[in-house]
Amino acid sequence: MPVGIFRVCLVVITAIVNHPLLFPRENGTVPENTEEIIQKMKEREESLRLEQLRLEQEIAAQEAAQKALEKAAEVVEESKEEKFRWDMWTALSMVIFLLIELWRQDFQEGNWQDTGGDEDDMAVLGKAFKGVAFPDKAVLASFYEKRILGTTADMARMREMVEGFADDLLEALRSVCNRDADMEVEDCMGIGSMYENWRVRKPFVCDLIVPFAPPEPYCFQSQTWCSGDSFPPDKQGYGTIKVCRANEDVTGCICDKTKLGEDMLCLLHSQANTTRPSSEMEDLLCFKNTQYLDANQVMKWFQIAVTKAWNRISHKYEFDLSFSLLDSPGALKIKFRSGKSIAFNLTPVVQYENSDVYFISHFPRSSLAADLPSSIHWFLTFAVYERRFIQLVSKTLPANACHVSCLQILSFLHGKQCSLTGPSGLTNYHLKTVMLHLLQARPSQDWAPEKLEARLQDMLKFLEKCLHEKKLYHFFIGNGKVPAELGFPIIFQKAEPLNLFRPFVLHRDVYRKTVDTFHEMLRNTSALINEYTVRIPLAQTNGIQKESL
């Protein structure tokens, strides 16, 4: 009990002592301290609020940046998918294009010359024949017999005379040449219409080519437009000839392709072998400061050699020999004392590898030719293979086949029309190319003699189609159907077809003149033929028509 009273007293005393009214001075600053604490708490609260706002802004900025990154990633992903789809379509389009191109080339190789096999196509193409009165079979047969057939014997006699004289002249040429320094001349060969028996227009001119080779130890290395070398489009059908030593590999050492420094020397070739004196190369008829054979230099050398050869044998003959044409350096003319003359062309050529394709120094130019080609670019002639092809096909045709007759009549009509209205872009070589295409396209029985009229119209319609399309392909170049018996070089069979009418695209005035001349020739066909045909009695005409039926 006393303990409990003591505890109550202690509590009362403690309460009295701690009462604020008892000690006012000691507790006078309490209200001021409370307000200061409250003020600090408010300031702290305001700073915390500002910090919270700053943190919220930073978080919002981070969220916006994250969203932007996510959006950019989505855009990149979509662009990748779009690019993938575009690449896929591009690749697919390229594949389709390549397939179409391969199909076109296969179709072109297989069918680009298969014209004339479909009568309906030929009928559609012959638009220029509407309203044209074409001579019948009887008139054509009489015209051919009276006007053309008689020239065959004259051509045979002229060929024999010219070939004999050319052989004698070349033998004399070899005797006057230096065998150790001059070019080696081989025997001549006849090419062209005179040797294919279809030339009709006078004067008759024999075309002879003379292969030649360099003296030892040199040799020719040829390059063509289709051998992988870079040739401009206007040089298709051309090539270059490089003169080099027989034991020299012009493609095997880099010193021949790049310029070495003054202090550098090729370890494979001495200075004497890599840099030849210019006079030596000029003696080898090369273009100045090059190893390429110069056609102009060759013709100058050949003309001088022919002149020396003629001076040696002129005493054996009772005629004169001279160069007849300035623009054709190989054109020669024999003048008899009676006033008659015989013209022939003797042109030097270079053999392409081991084939019968030749680089010809000068080729007759047509109105389609633009600028003169560079003298180091030589035109390739396939005349020997053309003659062989005609001979090969002729063995499979009926007796007295009309293929040569068609070409002769067409050549005659074109020549007469050009004499009336002036020259055109068409040449006899174009006409022969048309015949070669149709010879390969049509079966042998279609060339029977009684089908002369039909085949002549086919040739005219085919020529009309080629003029309309400005496309007449070279018969051999790019033609995979050349008979294997000819031994034709495969490199030219696999080459892109060569369009002989390509210049028409560049020369519109010549093209328009050519088309007008062709249409005028069609309209004048009957008049031109009747002018040179003896009138046939009606009874005879009816009899011939009945036989053909």
From TrEMBL:
Residues 404-477 form the Mab-21-like HhH/H2TH-like domain. Pfam families: Mab-21_C (PF20266). It is found in: Cell membrane; Nucleus outer membrane. One of its GO terms (cellular component) is plasma membrane. InterPro entries: ITPRIP-like, Mab-21_HhH/H2TH-like, MAB21L/cGLR. CDD domains: UDM1_RNF168_RNF169-like. One of its GO terms (molecular function) is protein kinase inhibitor activity. It comes from the Eukaryota. It is a single-pass type I membrane protein. The keyword Glycosyltransferase does not apply. Transmembrane segments: none annotated. Keywords: Cell membrane, Coiled coil, Glycoprotein, Membrane, Nucleus, Signal, Transmembrane, Transmembrane helix. Residues 38-82 form a coiled coil. Residues 1-15 form the signal peptide. The keyword Ribosomal protein does not apply. Gene3D superfamilies: 1.10.1410.40, 3.30.460.90. Belongs to the ITPRIP family. Enhances Ca(2+)-mediated inhibition of inositol 1,4,5-triphosphate receptor (ITPR) Ca(2+) release. This is Inositol 1,4,5-trisphosphate receptor-interacting protein.
